Amino acid sequence: MKKKLALVVVHEIYGVNDHMQHVIDHFTSSNTDVFCPNLLQLQNSFHYSDEEKAYQHFMNHIGFDGGKKQIEELVTSLSSNYTHIGLIGFSIGATISWLCSNNPKIDFIIGCYGSRIRDYVHIKPICATLLIFPEKEASFSVSPLIETLQQQNYPLLKIKQLHGEHGFLNPYSEKYNEHSTKQVYNIIDSILMKTIS
């Protein structure tokens, strides 16, 4: 018999670190198995102070297409054992998740501050997709991106903008915003409940 739900967590440039472990622990339940594949294929994750190094490593060795390929391979292998599969991605992981949103094996996608989604606005999700953006991003203006996405009129896309900066969901970062994180976790919990009920 197939199990209920596989939730695939798609990590940031740093790899499978303390924040990803926190997410895995939070969402693992009797109905939900959580997977966080190491896209970097390195033994250790990058430290937050090595942001530039981590970004270069990701862009030079994996890239968004490489990340998408790894996630879709995992989704294919999970689909024989699970009734439902969802993705939750953070930062580059959110952009990778967005790139997977036209995969028929995926039931839902949650993308948190995927700033590079701005390069891929013409992808039309075929599964329920929630994109979460902060008030502000260092590298671009958030509101025009949200407007552009809304103008596409994708029926399965919902967008939420919350207080905070890029990284506001990470309790190990100075960007952490507890109130916004609670809101996001409540939304995710209700999506998970709806999926498995």
From TrEMBL:
InterPro entries, sorted: AB_hydrolase_fold, Dienelactn_hydro, Dienelactone_hydrolase-like
Domain spans labelled Dienelactone hydrolase: 3-187
One family name in Pfam for this protein: DLH
GO MF entries: hydrolase activity
Top-rank taxon, per record: Bacteria
Protein name (database record): Dienelactone hydrolase domain-containing protein
Organism: Bacillus paramycoides
